[in-house]
Amino acid sequence: MIRGTWFRVRITKNDSAYMDYEENWPVFLESKNSATLQLSRSKNIMSVSDILTIYMNGVPSGKAPIVLSNREKGTASMIMSPVTDGVYGLPISPTEGFLNISRNVNSVVTGNFEGKATDGNKDIYLFRGYFLNVKINPEKI
To answer: Which residues pair with 132 in a beta bridge?
Structure first.
């Protein structure tokens, strides 16, 4: 049994608080050479909810750079899908930063991430977050 599964997502926009939530229902999926970590504000996966998704080319060990498109092994990309007035707004994608998997034991991972994005309006977003004891769900064939 996994105890203490948890995550937190904190985002600033132009040095002001933009988004801050913590929950205990992360989803980590692995399929062949890729993996996805979803950190959603809502437990209801079908609802319209703020969600940060981290895409990995393989499950990294240690620090992996955040890039816009993670085609190379050992890299990760992030997409924040914010909700505005009940609908998804424009996604925010950091182009620099890191994903750090500090512990990966028995398909349970712990780590943190940081990212930086600039949107079309020149607004600067800084992402920071943590995840603790997240179970990796492998693809079932």
So the answer is: 6
Give the type of residue at 20: D
Compute how many other C-beta atoms are within 10 angstroms of the C-beta atom of residue 57.
19
Closest by CA position to 38, among listed 139, 140, 137, 105:
137
Q: Which amino acid is at 124?
A: I
User: pTM of the entire structure?
Assistant: 0.91
SS3 state of residue 140: coil
**Which stretch, 24-28, 80-84, 125-129, 133-137, has highest mean pLDDT?**
125-129
Model confidence over 6-33: pLDDT tens digits?
Answer: 999 999 999 999 999 999 999 999 988 8
Compute the distance between CA of residue 126 and CA of residue 11 in angstroms, rounded to an integer. 5
SS3 category, 7: strand
**Contact predicate 33/22, CB 8 Å:** no
What is the phi/psi pair of residue 112, to 5°? -150, 170
Q: Where in the chain are the domains?
A: 6-138
Q: Which residue has the tokens 């940081």?
A: 114
Nearest Cα neighbor of 41 from 55, 29, 53 is 53
* Buried b or exposed e, range 60-70, using 16+ CB within 10 angstroms: beebbebbeeb
